[in-house]
UniProtKB/TrEMBL annotation:
The lineage of its organism: Bacteria, Bacillati, Bacillota, Bacilli, Bacillales. This is histidine kinase. InterPro entries: HATPase_C_sf, HATPase_dom, His_kinase_dom, HisK_dim/P_dom, HisK_dim/P_sf, PAS, PAS-like_dom_sf, Sig_transdc_His_kin-like_C. Its EC number is 2.7.13.3. Keywords: ATP-binding, Kinase, Nucleotide-binding, Phosphoprotein, Transferase, Two-component regulatory system. PROSITE patterns: HIS_KIN (PS50109), PAS (PS50112). NCBIfam families: sensory_box.
C-alpha cells in the first residue's frame, strides 16, 4: 500500500537520495542479495496493493483532510476511479455536515497509544445520490507523521430501512395518539404511555403528570383482582383479553368502562401491556334516550286514544256541575271542589294531547332571545311572589333558530317555572343563552339554587307522573323533552342535592326542515 505524491513519498525519497550520495564498498554477492531483497519488497508491495483492492470493504487513508490512498472498492462505492479521489479534499465527498470524525486530528493519538473510533457519514456519489457509510478509523504513524486509516461499509439499505422503521413508528404513534378510544401502555401496572383520549379521561395534560402511576389505583379495590387476572392472561396469551365491564373512580367521579388488554413484546426493551378502554357513559346515555323515546312514543299513542275519550264526557260533567251549583247554592262548597278537580283532569288531558301530537306545523326562523324574554315577562309576577330574581344574559348577535315558537315557549315556561318553585326561600334563577359556532348549537341554560333533586329522582326524570310537587302532574318535563326531541335537540339535567339544578337545553341551528304538519 503506497501513499503516493504526499508526505510519505517525500520522506522516503529524501532517505533514498541520502543513501545514493554515500559510498559503500560491497561485493557482487552483496549486490545480488540487495537486488533480491528489493524485488521481494516490491513483490510484497504489489501483493498488499492487490490484497487491499480486493477487500470487500472501502479502505482509505487520510492526511491533512486529504485522501492519499483509497482502494478500488471504496472508489466504486462513490462511482469514481481511484485517481479521481486520491489527492482530493475529504469534504468534497461529504453530502452533509455530519462527519463524525473530529474536524482536526492533531493531538488525538500519540506514538504509543492506538485508538479506534466509530463514525458514520453521508457520501456524495458521482451521480449526486447519497451513499450512507459506517466504519471505523484508527491512526498509523510513519516517519513521525500520523495518518488515519479507515474502513467503511455501504449501509445505505440498512439506513433506509431504519428510516422507514422510524417513519412507521412515528405514524403508528400518531395513530395511537388520535384513536378515539383511551389507550394505555403499562409495565408492572405502571402507566408509561397514554394517548390523547387516555390523558383526557384521567384529567391529565401530559404523560409526565402520571409519573408512572399505577393503573390499578383507578379501579375499586374489589375490582383490582379482576384487572390483575386480565393482565396475567394477556402476558400468557398471544391475543387480546375479552372486554370486561367495570367501574373506575377518576377525580371523585365514578364512570363505567369496559377494557381489553394485549401483550407487547420488547417495548423499549421491556414486556408491556397495551390496554384499550371504552367509556360507556355516552353509550348508557344513548340507551337511556332510546328507552325514553320509546316510552314517549308508547305514551303518545296511548294518550291519543285516552285523551280523546276522556275529553267528551269531561265536557258534559263540567257543564252539569255548573247547573247543579246554581240549583243547590247551599252546597256550593262541594261543587267548587268538583269544579277544581274537573279542571285538574282537563289540564292533564290537555298535556296528554300535547304529548300525543304536538303541533309543529308552524316552524320558521325566530329570535331565541325574543322567545325567552316573552316567557320571562309572563313569569316575573310568579317569581316576585316567591322572592326570586330572574337574571337573564344572552350573547350578542345570536343567529336565528328554525323552530316552533309556541312549543319552545311552553318548554321554557315549564322549566323556568320549576326553577322558581324549587327556591321556596327565594334567591336567583340564572338564564343564559350562548352559541357554539363549532357545534352549530344554541345553549339555553336555566340554573336554580334550590334544594336540588335526590339521585333516585334524577335517574327517573322524564317518566310519566313523576313529580316532587304536591299538585304536579309529572308530565311537564316529559312534554318538554318530547318538544326538544322534535327540534332535534337535547335537554341535559344536572342536579346536586342541596346545591340546585342546571338544565342545559341544546338546540341545533341547522336542523332539517320538518315536512310533517
Amino acid at each position: 500500500m503506497e501513499f503516493s505524491n504526499h508526505a510519505v513519498n517525500a520522506n522516503r525519497n529524501a532517505s533514498m537520495k541520502q543513501a545514493a550520495g554515500r559510498q559503500y564498498p560491497y561485493s557482487y554477492n552483496q549486490s545480488s542479495s540487495y537486488m533480491k531483497f528489493e524485488a521481494l519488497i516490491k513483490e510484497q508491495s504489489n501483493f498488499y496493493s492487490v490484497l487491499m483492492d480486493h477487500v470487500v470493504a472501502g479502505v482509505f487513508v487520510i492526511y491533512d483532510n486529504t485522501f492519499i490512498y483509497v482502494n478500488s472498492y471504496f472508489a466504486q462505492l462513490l462511482g469514481y476511479g481511484v485517481d479521481e479521489i486520491v489527492g482530493q479534499q475529504v469534504d468534497r465527498f461529504i453530502e452533509e455536515e455530519d462527519w463524525l470524525l473530529p474536524q482536526s486530528f492533531d493531538n488525538i493519538l500519540d506514538s504509543e497509544i492506538t485508538k479506534r473510533q466509530i463514525f458514520r457519514w453521508n457520501g456524495k456519489h458521482k451521480n449526486s445520490s447519497i451513499v450512507y457509510f459506517e466504519g471505523k478509523s484508527t491512526s498509523i504513524k510513519h516517519d513521525g507523521v500520523i495518518y488515519f486509516l479507515s474502513t467503511v461499509q455501504d449501509v445505505t439499505i440498512k439506513y433506509e430501512k431504519e428510516r422507514e422503521l422510524i417513519r412507521n413508528a412515528k405514524m403508528y404513534q400518531r395513530m395511537l395518539m388520535t384513536i378515539p378510544e383511551p389507550i394505555y401502555i403499562t409495565v408492572d401496572y405502571a402507566i408509561i404511555f397514554a394517548n390523547r383520549h387516555g390523558l383526557d379521561l384521567l384529567g391529565k395534560r401530559h404523560i409526565s403528570g402520571l409519573s408512572e402511576q399505577s393503573f390499578l389505583e383507578y379501579f375499586d379495590i374489589k375490582d383490582r383482582e379482576d384487572v390483575i387476572h386480565d393482565f396475567q392472561n394477556a402476558l400468557l396469551l398471544e391475543e387480546a383479553t375479552p372486554f370486561r365491564q367495570q367501574q373506575m373512580k377518576i377525580n371523585d367521579r365514578i364512570i363505567e368502562v369496559e377494557h381489553s388488554s394485549v401483550k407487547i413484546e420488547n417495548y423499549i426493551g421491556r414486556t408491556a401491556i397495551l390496554t384499550v378502554l371504552r367509556d360507556l357513559t355516552e353509550r348508557r346515555q344513548d340507551e337511556e334516550r332510546l328507552v325514553r323515546s320509546e316510552k314517549l312514543s308508547v305514551i303518545g299513542q296511548l294518550a291519543a286514544g285516552v285523551a280523546h275519550e276522556i275529553r267528551n264526557p269531561l265536557t258534559a260533567l263540567k257543564g252539569f256541575t255548573q247547573l247543579l251549583r246554581n240549583k243547590y247554592a247551599e252546597h256550593s262548597y262541594y261543587f267548587d271542589i268538583m269544579g277544581t278537580e274537573i279542571d285538574r283532569i282537563n289540564l292533564i288531558v290537555n298535556e296528554f294531547m300535547t304529548l300525543a301530537k304536538p303541533h309543529y306545523n308552524s316552524f320558521q326562523f325566530n329570535d331565541i332571545v325574543h322567545i325567552v324574554q316573552s316567557v320571562l315577562s309572563i313569569l316575573e309576577t310568579q317569581a316576585a311572589l316567591y322572592g326570586v330574581e330572574l337574571d337573564f344574559q344572552a350573547q350578542e348577535n345570536l343567529p336565528n333558530l328554525y323552530c316552533n315558537e309556541n312549543q319552545l315557549k311552553q318548554v321554557f315556561i315549564n322549566v323556568i317555572k320549576n326553577a322558581i318553585e324549587a327556591m321556596q326561600d327565594g334567591g336567583r334563577v340564572e338564564i343564559t343563552i350562548r352559541y357554539e359556532p363549532a357545534e352549530q348549537i344554541l345553549h339555553v341554560k336555566i340554573q336554580d339554587h334550590g334544594m336540588g333533586m335526590p339521585e333516585d329522582v334524577q335517574k327517573r326524570i322524564g317518566e310519566p307522573f313523576l313529580t316532587t310537587k304536591e299538585k304536579g302532574t309529572g308530565l311537564g318535563l316529559m312534554v318538554s323533552s318530547r318538544i326538544i326531541e322534535e327540534h332535534k335537540g337535547t335537554m341535559l339535567i344536572t342536579s346536586r342535592s342541596g346545591e340546585g339544578t342546571l338544565i342545559d337545553i341544546q338546540l341545533p341551528l341547522q336542523m332539517e326542515y320538518m315536512n310533517n304538519n
